């Protein structure tokens, strides 16, 4: 066992996903999409919330599993942060999750969570969970010393039927126990890289869309959470901001991109769908060659193969384009600000050397998360959880291994977190329960999926919740002396 002092980090994780599943091969048959393309780019399936579920019930399920599986004293928790972009209440957040967890703890004869508990909610698109984790770690390093923190990332990704985002839907929650002396992995906040830039209409959820867009109202009988988005523009923003976060991390670590990518055991990215981390890694790899000094001849050869100018790739690696300004000047027609780099990266992705890098550094847990769909703020934590469980099942030794977790949120911002596996990682990794959470799915028919998606009542689904939280009723009082109109009430079903 190592005697090296660990930094604050993560000691345990758990996951919850709804049982309702849409296999993407079936979805392709319903919609006429190409299954081979969808399987390669997107994944295999996505999860759908039942009518009695929402972002808070999923979060509470994940937190309660975390506490029970890891025998956590509820009174030791001083911080519980919720990262989400799918809130249904603009006032309360993590306190709702706390209320449900207390109810379940009492039902099992356990003490409630500490009364002296901070309950913040963090929102920035898909990055809210990582911001919540950073907040928890800062709490542990300051006034929360000798206490514990829980972070829960929970989201529902919903897109209009027929939209280009429909196949990237999903739902689920990941709960994380953070401690001053972590048992799963430490997080090196001192060398983390942060980046952000305002990107205007990149993936947004303005309230006005519910009021002024009749087409949205016609497609759903309840208030929708469909985003306003532009796929190409969002991809350009993702690549640009993650590159700036990684390069800031590398600057702090005082290491070149090439040496860092060689040294880390695993690379985890925010993954709204299967292909985007691969695309991002190839983009970062080409930029790393361009900004470093060791691989320029290799880069020249790559540029020749891609039919792009070596000098143009070098210039792009030194540029800092204003994507929003470019979008406005082009009157809403996004263009790739790194077109030469992107073309070189596309060629790189087909080369055996890069494919082997992906196989070794990005394969842990990858085959598990292709069954989830997009979990927004929970997507990156879910991949990390899957990787650790995969390592346990495969007998892969990870003690002391350096890794990096790259979070991203549209709009946009990114965080690059260096992490290192703890000496005793094996036991808490074995309690994550990822495969168990995916077990016994209920595959939806087309009619069932469309009814649930559109918020319509559906009676033929044979599913009785057990050992989880449900929305028991929604308030309808709107009187002078008392109002609870629209307030969701919850119940724990043993």
Describe the structure.
The chain is of the alpha/beta class and 494 residues long. It has one domain: Peroxisomal Thiolase, Chain A, domain 1 (3-Layer(aba) Sandwich). Helix content is 40%, strand content 18%. The strands form 3 sheets. Strands 1, 4, 5, 6, 7, 8, 9, 10, 11 and 12 form a 10-stranded mixed sheet that branches. Strands 3-2-13 form a 3-stranded mixed sheet. A two-stranded antiparallel sheet has the order 14-15. β11 (402-409) and β12 (413-421) form a beta hairpin. α10 packs across α14 (339-348) and α11 crosses α14. It is globular, with a radius of gyration of 22 Å.
What keyword list fits this structure?
18% strand; three-stranded mixed β-sheet; ten-stranded mixed β-sheet; 494 residues; 15 strands; Peroxisomal Thiolase, Chain A, domain 1; alpha/beta; globular
